[in-house]
Amino acid sequence: MTVLRTMDPGDFAFPELVGRDHELAVARELLTRPDIRVVNIRGAGGVGKTRLAQALLADIFPNSDLGGCFVDLVPQRGEGQLLPAIMRALHLPASPDPALDQLAAAIGHRSILLVLDNLEHLPGPEADLAALTSRLPGARLLITSRRVLHLRGVQELPLRPLAVPVNDAHASASPAVQLFVQRAQEVAPDFALSADNAAVLSAICRVLEGLPLALELAAARLRAVDLEGLLGWLNAPLEVLTDGPLDDAPHRQSLRSAVRWSADLLSPTEREVFLACGAFLGGFTLQALEAVAGVDGTQSVLIALVEHSLVQRAAGPEPRWRLLEPVREYAAGEGRSSGRSGRLADRHAHFFLSMAEHIASGGVNLTPEGMARLQADDANLHAALEYLVAAGLAGEAQRFVLALTGYWASQGGLSRAVALCARVLALPGDVLSARRAEVFQSSAWLALRNHQHREAVRWGREGLEVWRALGDPAGEASALSTLADVLGSQGQAAPAIKYFQQALGLAEAQHDLPLQAQTQHNLGFTLGQAGDYEAALAHLKRALDLYQTLGYIMGEAYSSVACARMSALLGDLDAGLTHLRRGWRVGQTLRDVFFEESLLYTAALLSQRRGHLTLAVRLSAASTAVQRRSGVRMPPSCEVERGELIDALRAALPTGDFTAAWEVGMHAGPEVVAAELNEAVMADGPGLPTAHHLTPREQQVLIQVAEGHSDKKIAQALGISPGTVGKHVASLLGKLEVHNRVELTRWAIGHGLAEGGQSKPPRS
């Protein structure tokens, strides 16, 4: 019987492994368990599977009778090559006997660790692997592969890219940054992470998504360019990240080669769907992929692509998948080369247009679920609209703007949206159409929210002219209200009030309740800017009544907060607290940063007027933090009020107390902000008895339960799992000593957290 020589550490001169301590520990534990014989390290190309396997071999081989052996399978091609490759790696002499018999004779029952590297391209290796584990009872197989092995008893160990910096301040703790710095020092020994380069270095790691091969190739480019220049070059990473070490495997010498190695293993149908994946930015759902790929059985092909490690699961409000950005760039490039990109882009654009219109079909009531779906596909939505504009498809582009207006209006950073609106309005087409007039109004409203007053006035007037030319009184009323809102925000109260009154008359004549509610609200806000608080509050209350009648949750939330502000300015703090409580209860599931900023400011104003100064500081800071984080801005009059409030609080409190409270508010997370708002609306008023000690999250769940929502709906609204919702419901039942959801609802209504009856369905 052939006797194998024992391996020694000199056989394993492998590069240092960076940032994989956890994976090493997990794999080491798996490989020492008696019930596990085969471990498959699976992951995308360039993720570092080989390096991890090498480190494990060097660490574990002394524990085996015959040590370990590294089997490089890259050069092998075709069927039946696995066992001969293992024999060659073990230096077994040639023999006419079957390879499996020779391996069994040489190894017997002794223990050995066999590392089978890059198994994915060998066809049907499962039968040989099963035979190995059967004939070599002491052998353990550590496999690296980009694809799943369909074999019983295989323990899979998914390997993901290295963690990238969450923020620049923590760059030094990021394994991705650590690897980049280590490789950069191989070409520039003095290179080091510093306060000056942390932001750029973090950005490079995020662009490359922590993919080790990409980081190593990028670090080598510092021979030719500095960090800032490298970041700019990475707009096209596949073109830049080339020329890796010649002694490395060919598919690891460039990022493009690493991706191509996986793509070349796909069947024609799998390749077709893979190219369709390249049309998406930021991920996709199965429904979206089916629409864009146009291939039967897309679901099964998607599963295959996941098993090939080309597609990754992604987070979202519904099941989603994505490609790592270098992989997506490769797929998109192959789509262009094959002539498919135009067809894919057109399908992509029309799918997302249809999706946006469907979500917006509820009219002004954008549900939390719909908002979450739009946020998850933000990049796809904008790419789709960009395509329609570039293609000159004015009608579809106008429909897209109208479908996205409500979504855009609830988000920060409206400059991009306003710029897109300008491009859509510049497209040739029918200049006298109701849709174009609506786009003028939507564009004016968005420009107003972004404080682009010149564009807002121009588009507001042009929209009014189109409606008048069309002889449409309902459209004219809406345009008058929009233009009045724009003028009022600029301090032109007199003409704004005149236009509002004209719009209100036309809306009443048309029996248009939604427009009446909107006009009443904006008229009340404008009167408040002019200092007529009593008249302002009267109009805001009328708007609130109409919104409640219509079941328009967002309108009810906005008008409630506006009534709270007016009441506070009039000195009626009890009424202000009641309105604020309603606004917080109704609006806390909205994903609207403008509402969040104004709610926090109004809560701060009321807290200050009621003598809760430290709480007022924290809430003012939280409101300011929303503005800085998302780029939203309240109307100028509110910004002036907030500045005056902050100055008054700074003067009323010791410097240390003010500074400490301000810092807490500026850096508070969502749960802390929710707790602060609960404190503001519950103090000195009816609400949850403190003896029950409900957490802010339990209060949110209780409100949702009382409104009749299922666990799944609550989970989607609050961004948690249905299982977590169930745990909160169980906790509520115990704390409140009730027996079921019906009694929970009665308890919430009885304590002012919910109103009796269900909300009316939204109207279009």
Commentary on this structure:
- The chain is mainly α and 764 residues long.
- The chain has 37 helices and seven strands.
- The strands form two sheets. Strands 2-3-4-1-5 form a five-stranded parallel sheet, sandwiched between helices. It has a two-stranded antiparallel ribbon with strand order 6-7.
- Strand 3 (112-117), helix 5 and strand 4 form a beta-alpha-beta unit.
- Helix 19 (394-409) packs parallel to helix 21 (434-449).
- It is elongated, with a radius of gyration of 32 Å.
- The termini are far apart.
- Mean pLDDT is 88; it is low at 1-6, 685-692 and 757-764.
Summarize the model shown.
This protein is mainly α. 61% of the residues lie in helices and 4% in strands.
**Distance from first to last alpha carbon:** 83 Å
The multimeric state of the shown protein is: single chain
Catalogue the unreliable spans.
Answer: 1-6, 685-692, 757-764
Mean pLDDT: 88
In helices, the fraction of residues equals 55-70%
**Based on helices, strands and strand pairing, what is the structural class?**
mainly alpha
- Overall form: elongated
